[in-house]
């Protein structure tokens, strides 16, 4: 981590129905980098993302945004500071795709940024490869198409912090690569990107830092080559793996011999 944190979490714990989902997690989010949250199912990745984004209140600990308690921000203030892509890409009303993307501009209503709406929406649709779907009904799309439209909505929000919860889960190989490229470009523009990723090789390919979680605790955080080691991954996942260096990035594969 090289820059000053824009968002900091200290001592985060979350209890759900008497079960400790997160335990004493501290983490900094830095502009200009991609932070990947990885770990087995049930490790607490999505819960941590929801707390960091202000969608969920922790049972203990605090999150600060620019040294201000995240809980003190109004919904509009938060919507102008951070955008969130959740795992659920469902809408009950049959909005057209272009209307869904335009929803990302709603935080900027009655602001100077409103004048940029058309250009921002068009650029976001192009980046997510959904221009050709603009006049289709969202409810008629495939799961992968819905995921890409939802990503375009998040991009249209144009915030300094972007949270992505499993953004590649429903996508084919080409569009997975598109998401990685988009995440990288957002960070290169100076934004902070936090993404939950199940594929450790994808995390290793794009992230500046990786936070490895297990059973609600933060096991390690740091550069991919330092965190995604064969020893650490094998222990956390309960599966023997090999880590192959590809262009200086770790590629994790199960050991099937």
Question: How does this structure look, described?
Answer:
- The protein is α/β, with parallel strands linked by helices and 257 residues long.
- It is globular, with a radius of gyration of 18 Å.
- It has one domain (7-254): P-loop containing nucleotide triphosphate hydrolases (Rossmann fold, 3-Layer(aba) Sandwich), CATH 3.40.50.
- The protein contains nine helices and twelve strands.
- Strand 7 (161-165), helix 6 (173-188) and strand 8 form a beta-alpha-beta unit.
- The strands form three sheets. A six-stranded mixed sheet has the order 6-7-8-3-9-10, with helices on both faces. A four-stranded antiparallel sheet has the order 2-1-4-5, covered by helices on one side. Strands 11-12 form a two-stranded antiparallel sheet.
- The model has no long low-confidence stretch (mean pLDDT 93).
- 32% of the residues lie in helices and 28% in strands.
- The protein has helices at 45-52, 75-81, 97-102, 117-127, 143-157, 173-188, 200-206, 224-227, 230-237; strands at residues 7-16, 19-29, 34-38, 60-65, 68-69, 82-85, 161-165, 192-196, 209-214, 217-222, 241-246, 249-254.
- The longest helix has 16 residues, at 173-188.
């Amino acid at each position: 981590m090289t820059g000053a944190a824009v968002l900091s979490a200290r001592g985060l714990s979350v209890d759900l129905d008497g079960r400790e989902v997160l335990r004493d997690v501290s983490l900094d989010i830095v502009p200009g980098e991609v932070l990947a949250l990885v770990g087995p199912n049930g490790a607490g990745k999505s819960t941590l993302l929801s707390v960091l984004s202000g969608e969920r209140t922790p049972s203990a600990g605090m999150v600060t945004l620019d040294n201000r308690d995240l809980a003190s921000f109004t919904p509009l203030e938060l919507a102008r500071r951070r955008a969130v892509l959740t795992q659920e890409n469902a809408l009950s009303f049959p909005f057209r795709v272009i209307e869904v993307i335009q929803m990302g501009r709603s935080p900027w209503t009655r602001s100077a940024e409103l004048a940029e709406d058309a250009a921002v929406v068009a650029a976001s649709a192009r980046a997510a490869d959904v221009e050709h779907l603009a006049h289709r009904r969202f409810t008629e799309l495939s799961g992968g198409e819905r995921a890409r439209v939802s990503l375009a909505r998040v991009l249209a929000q144009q915030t300094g912090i972007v949270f992505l919860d499993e953004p590649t889960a429903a996508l084919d190989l080409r569009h997975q690569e598109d998401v990685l490229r988009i995440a990288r470009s957002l960070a290169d523009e100076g934004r902070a990107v936090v993404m939950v990723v199940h594929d450790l090789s994808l995390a290793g390919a794009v992230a500046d830092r990786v936070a490895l979680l297990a059973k609600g605790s933060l096991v390690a955080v740091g550069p991919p080559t330092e965190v995604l080691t064969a020893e650490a991954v094998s222990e956390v996942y309960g599966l023997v793996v090999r880590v192959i260096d590809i262009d200086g990035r770790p590629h994790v594969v199960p050991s099937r011999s």
